[in-house]
Amino acid sequence: MHLLQNVPGIMNLRLLPKCFLTGPDVIFYYFFAATTLTGLHFATTTIMTAVLKWLGYIQGSHLPLQDLVKFVLFANLSIVGMNVSLMWNSVGFYQIAKLCMIPVSCLLEVLFDKIRYSRDTKLSIVVVLIGVAVCTVTDVSVNTRGLIAAMIAVWSTSLQQYYVHFLQRKYSLGSFNLLGHTAPAQAASLLIVGPFLDYWMTNKRVDKFDYNVTAVFFIILSCTIAVGTNLSQFICIGRFTAVSFQVLGHMKTILVLVLGFIFFGKEGLNLHVVLGMILAIVGMIWYGSSSSKPGGKERRSYSMSGDKSQKHGVLSDSGELDEKV
Predict the structure, then answer these.
(1) Fewer CB within 10 Å, N or C, the chain?
(2) Predicted structure pTM score
(3) How many CA atoms lie less than 13 Å away from 50 in the CB half-sphere?
(4) Cα gap 28→152, rounded to integer Å
């Protein structure tokens, strides 16, 4: 096992050709404590935001405790759920669960933000889902506990990503500001719970791991990369939406597969995998084009006062027909 396999957002390494995971020229440092490692990721992110705030690049802001607790709950459930889902399910079912996040995110936007999708936007999402499924979903096996873990992972991840966009919009928070509020809380909670949860999942203690120089180097490297990953997620979702982030995020899956085939051999590469990649990329391009067009993805907002004012020939701000997302 590779150290980065259990890093949230980099778990797709299990999709790589077998030679990558077992090749004789690859040195492996398997750090089993995935939840604790994620806590270290957010601790590193906390340090980064603290330094930027000290330098004056991040201005003071406010996030109510109630919203912070909700976000941390969803985010931590997402991290634990994804790791447990990966551990208890086959790679194929794990990928199916990840694909389910897109329709769930769409449902959240429709219910809470009153978003309307055009036919082309809906079809482009379907094309992306089919393409990614064709090139990644192979063996599919599921059990009761794996199904429960997958459901928790799908819903908590979708809610966490929806909340990133919601909180930035509601409180006018930048990506750095929101990270400055959420990263310390996530780091503290995960570092407290992580060692116990990792012991429950692996029957191994974090303090018994062989922290040699090379392993520590890769842990630090993982934490450094995670800072950019966390920030890019907040920037992308804040600028666009959770659905757009999910659709574009599957480009990472395609890149992992392509780089695996380029650098570690073409084992597993066949026609249907190539066609799946092409279909997914076409769907992503189509989604970007259709969702950016007028009517492709819009928020409708009506109010009683707006309706009344329109009757008198006055169009209020809350009575605008369409607001482009």
Answers:
(1) N
(2) 0.79
(3) 8
(4) 30
